[in-house]
Amino acid sequence: MRILSVATAIALLAACGGQKAETPTAPTCDLTPDTLAGKTFLAEVAKDGQKTTDSKARIRFDKEGDKLTAKYTVKSLANVFDYTCEATSDTEVKCVTPVRLPELCIALELNKEGGCTVEAMNAIDGVSVTPEEFTKAKADADKLMAQAKEENMWDRFKVAYHNVGNQLQAIVYAKINDRKCNLKIDDMFMTVYQGNRMEDYNPMGSNDFVKVDGEYLFEDCPHQRLLGDMNTAERPATMQDFQMGIVHDAGAEVHFFNVDTNAQKAEESCNYSMDTWANYKPVEKGQAVNVLEDGTIDWHASYAFPADDLIQLPKSTGGVFHMVRYKECGGKKEKVDVICSKPMVQ
User: Alpha helix (H) ranges present in the chain?
Assistant: First the structure.
């Protein structure tokens, strides 16, 4: 009797069945410049020898009409920056912030007296200004230069506005990696030095960003000192009674109170609410806010930061807490502002 080899037996069985063995196919990546809108990405980082994500560095793409836009944090604890984007290829988009025109005018003028002209601006790649925009930018630039001379700061002014690190525009190059199905983001800026346009990397540099599900905060917080953190639920009687520099215990409730005068007193026939976020994730949305007997709006929220969800602050570990405030008067709801706090937690 002839004994068939294993390979021959498998081939005969496949032939008898009339079917061919299927070759597994790699999953396809759904990322293209046209499908980025509505997606959020976090920077991929290494921690304790493992890959994880850093929610401080995040970007979200959206569509405004037919225009692709992005909100990007540049790893800031509380700031979010707006970019407009366009596809430069089938696998890459370029996103930019508006050019700081007065600062560009100053850079051109410091390189050559009389060098700031509408023609010189428009000769720079990526810059397009109207005569009206140029007139305003030139007036603002002249005002800043005159002020520096009056205050005997001219030498320092020239160094600050005419150097290779003078950031005139932020640029993000987001390249799609089909194999990993993620983004490689180059975080850069544009400047003009000695009349020449240049690009260089921001401190974030070049990083992989991975697509994530769930909701993340993309609200800029310009008011970073208007939300005080306390370890008690009792509102301090006066602003002077707020304790500074409290280090909270992980897992313990941290109480947040507004310390500003904006939206402090309730308006007649208006209701107030807030959305709260901890470390850029939602805590509670549409939370009703009480009005105290004296008419003070009680902007008060609390949150316990878990020990395994702390982030690195400049001087300690801790968290970031946002309060997005709303008022509704006559059936019309509008956002009041965004205030935030960066409590130290250990």
Answer: 6-17, 101-111, 118-122, 131-150, 154-161
